[in-house]
Each structure stands twice: as structure tokens, then as C-alpha cells.
Design a protein that fits this description.
Strand content: 35-45%
Distance between the termini: 45 Å
Structural class: mainly beta
CATH architecture of the largest domain: Sandwich
Shape: globular
Number of strands: 25
Largest sheet: 9 strands, antiparallel
Helix content: under 10%
CATH topology of the largest domain: Jelly Rolls
CATH superfamily of the largest domain: Jelly Rolls
CATH class of the largest domain: Mainly Beta
Order of helices and strands: EEEEEEEEEEEEEEEEEEEEEEHEEE
Length: 382
Amino acid sequence: MPIYHSLGQIPRKRHQVFRKPDGGIYYEELVGNKGFTGLASLLYHIHTPTEVRAVERVKDLHPQPLDDGDLRHRHYRTGNLPAGGSPILDRVPLLFNGEVQLSHVRPVLQDNFFYRNGQADELIYLAEGAGILHSQFGDLDVRSGDYVVIPRGVVHRWELRDARMLVLETAGYVRTPRRYRNEHGQLLEGAPYNERDLRRPTQLPVFDERGEFPILVKHEHRLSRFVLGHHPFDAVGWDGYYYPWAISIHDFEPLVGRFHQPPPIHQTFESEGVVICSFCPRPYDFDGEAVPAPYYHSNAMSDEVIFYASDEFMSRKGISYGSITLHPDGLPHGPQPGRMEASIGKAHTNELAVMIDTFRPLQRAAPTRQIEDLDYWRSWLD
């Protein structure tokens, strides 16, 4: 859960007169979720945030489902997707249900518009690249290995170099797991990361500019174009709990045991209908009789997706950096032949991967057809 943060100028009390140097009044805006009861921040604008001069529908964004009738384990090679385009407009949808959508993009363009996701929080894993996330809450530096959380409704624009992005959109809000926090919201001593690891916007550039500024808004799987009469980043200050934030996968501290620990110990985030875990370099189980590779499992009521952020993974063979595997609800899966035996006696692993478990079945989007390894389901045969 984000912690209280403030940037720029704010008045002594909320909802009080806050005057500009010329005697005018700054315009206060509440941005938050769950009406007036969830996380929120108060921003103070030079201009009214409602000054919209034009609205038009741009395009439909419903992912097209792919149904080939087969129920099987699947493997997708995202490295076969071409680089190009915008970090917003050229996302390739891969997997989705009513609560989450997983997409992939390797942008090369800098957008000349702003963006607001009005239907989902976004959790972006920046597998490659570096840059800045610009938003109405200020600038957030990002780099390879970062998870970047953008709450729904936040106006933003990416400035990136050499990027590869795994994009997860969630109907619920993305947060730290409840079991990592005490009753006050502070991360516990036993959590695999703490508040020092959470990065927040550090600079608040203020743009007092008039003109026509396009904002693309996603809502109900449609993209609309709003034209604002001033630059959207005109806030002179803000405070609260609602803002973009980041944490590096390399700051996740794995927990290990004498014998194999189950996947929930790798959990990093939660949202409605989905959990996100990080598999990071770590020592293996340290009992002399331990089997470090995970045991076979049939997780009923859960689809398991793994994005492989390195070429190494203890229980898999035939995958590579950028691979995505999908193991559907209830189908047994686990180490491929020889991987369990090979793990015995090993001291550590350098694997790096992001796991996304959903509690409702995922549909495959049409673009997965062109990148699927059709023989993956046979990889458990000797």
C-alpha cells in the first residue's frame, strides 16, 4: 500500500482558500478510488481540470478471443512479437478475463498525447529499458526490473528508451498483500520488502500552458479522445495516498526454508481475482535431503501464468527470456523430465520471473496464435 506523500505547495488545511500570487484561487481536485472512502490525494490546479473542449471516440479495444477448442498447457514466445509503435496504442493483448488483461509491448515511439486508464489499475513490469513516467503527480524515474503501479484515472505519459513492457490491467486496485501489513497499514518486519523499497514521484514540474492538449481515455474497452484547454500537469502541489509508485523486482527479498517453500511466499501484489509473485535469485532449500524443484501440483480454481525474465528457471526447459507459459485450472504441472533430479544438491538459482495467478479462467487473445509453441504440452514426455 502506498504511504502518505506530498509534493509542491499545499495549503495548511484541506478545502480552505489557497490563493495564487495574483490573488486568484487554485482549484482543488480529489483523485481517488471507491468514491470518498478509498485511497485518495488532493491536487491543487492552476486551471480547472474540467476544461474539456472536444470529445471523440477513437476505437474499440475489446480483445478478440481465440478458441481452438483444445485444453492444454501453452507456451508463448513474446520475442517473436515485433518491436515498434506506442507504449499505449500498440500493446498486444495476450490473455484476459473479466478482472485482468495481460499485454506485451516493445515501444519505440514517444507519445504526443497523454493517457488515462479509466477502467483499470495498471501494473507494468519493465523487463527492459529505462525512462520517466510523467504524471499529474510528478516525475517517477523507472528502470529495468521495475514494477510500476499506476492507479486508475491517473493522467500520465511515458518517456522510455529501449523498453519491453509486460502490462497487467486489473479491475480491482493493485496493493501490497494484506498479510504483509499490520492494522495501521505499515509493512511488517517479516515482509519481503518494506517502505524504503517503494519509490514515489520526486519532482513536480508545473506547466501553466494554454492550448489544445489531447488525452486518450480507456473506458469500457473503448478509447476516447478528450481535448483539454490547458496542460494537464498544472498542479502546483498535492498530498495523499493515491499516486504512481514503483518497486524493483531486485528489491524483493526471497524467503527460503530447509525444505521447499510454496509459491505464495513469493507474492508481491494482490488485486481482486489475481495475485502477482516474483521468483528471484535465492539460495535453494538447505536440507541435505531437500528437493529444491517445485512439486507437481493441480491448482483447481486457478490459472497460472509465468513471464520468464531470464533464461533460467529451475523446473522448466525449452523456455527462454520473454517466454510466457499458461497452465490452466486443475491440469497437473510441475518439473519437466530431469529437472527435479537435477535440482537436488544445487546451492542456488539465478532465475527471474513474474507469476500471475488468476482465480477465474483466462481467455487467449487472437495474437497468441502467431507466437505459440504448439509442442509445449508434450515437454513432460521423456
